[in-house]
């Protein structure tokens, strides 16, 4: 019979004042971490990455003010602080030689609405729709229910009513909510489409020759709007592609399968 062994106590050294202050700073960073997501969403909605791109990839604050007329003069100091936070996050780069100039990083290039040449072949690489979906109130509300959801009883009624934090926040699961809320459905569909276009382009470029050598035809199961099949057909004209969405009960289920569970049946 196995013995019950308790974990021996660990003696913790008394932290110094410097260590306590560092721990406090780290705690604040975690506690206010949601502001990073909101800063990212603000940059996308204001069109800052695209504005910098149209300026040749770099812009001063004055040039951003001219390019973003939606920001009133009274809030321009806040825009400057927003840019500082985004620089610290690695979304933008700041050149402080003289007047501060902000430029794009690999992260912010993925947020440029008209960027089509990052991975070559004219493949669109903008992931702004995905970032907007991930930082939307729909998911944020679900994340706020996580502590409450973890404390819920395991009885059948409670489990059926809230299998996930998303269900606890919105009254039904992701699939059901997509079918009921047209706004969320549009946001989710745009996000899945952007993600699929991005991934399909990289797969074709990096894995195409090895994966599709000798293939004459294929079926993309759960192909949504045919993004993946179109990318393959364009890169390999000899492959006969067919994107199928077989009798899924809702259009959003096809989007979900296309972006996350899509696989190819090679004939």
Automatic annotation (TrEMBL):
One of its GO terms (molecular function) is methyltransferase activity. Pfam families: Dimerisation, Methyltransf_2. This is Uncharacterized protein. PANTHER family: O-METHYLTRANSFERASE. PROSITE patterns: SAM_OMT_II (PS51683). InterPro entries: COMT-like, COMT_C, COMT_dimerisation, SAM-dependent_MTases_sf, WH-like_DNA-bd_sf, WH_DNA-bd_sf. It comes from Urochloa decumbens. Residues 156-241 form the O-methyltransferase C-terminal domain. One of its GO terms (biological process) is methylation. Residues 28-113 form the O-methyltransferase dimerisation domain.
């Amino acid at each position: 019979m196995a013995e019950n062994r308790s974990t021996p106590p660990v003696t913790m050294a008394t932290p110094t004042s410097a260590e306590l202050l560092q721990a406090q700073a780290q705690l604040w960073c975690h506690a206010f971490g949601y502001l990073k997501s909101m800063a990212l969403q603000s940059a996308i909605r204001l069109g800052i990455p695209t504005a910098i791109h149209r300026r040749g990839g770099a812009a001063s604050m004055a040039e951003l003010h001219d390019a973003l007329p939606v920001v009133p003069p009274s809030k321009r100091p806040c825009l400057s602080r927003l840019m500082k936070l985004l620089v610290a996050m690695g979304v933008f780069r700041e050149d402080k030689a003289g007047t501060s100039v902000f430029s794009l990083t690999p992260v912010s290039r993925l947020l440029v609405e008209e960027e089509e040449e990052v991975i070559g072949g004219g493949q669109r690489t903008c992931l702004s729709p995905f970032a907007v979906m991930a930082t939307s109130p729909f998911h944020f509300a679900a994340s706020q229910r996580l502590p409450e959801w973890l404390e819920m009883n395991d009885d059948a009624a409670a489990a059926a009513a809230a299998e996930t934090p998303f269900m606890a926040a919105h009254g039904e699961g992701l699939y059901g909510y997509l079918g009921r809320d047209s706004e969320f459905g549009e946001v989710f569909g745009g996000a899945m489409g952007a993600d699929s276009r991005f991934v399909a382009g990289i797969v074709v470029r990096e894995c195409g020759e090895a994966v599709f050598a000798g293939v004459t035809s294929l079926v993309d199961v759960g192909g949504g709007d045919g993004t993946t099949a179109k990318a393959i057909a364009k890169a390999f004209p000899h492959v006969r592609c067919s994107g199928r969405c077989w009798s899924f009960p809702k259009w959003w289920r096809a989007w979900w399968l296309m972006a996350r569970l899509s696989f190819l049946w090679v004939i």
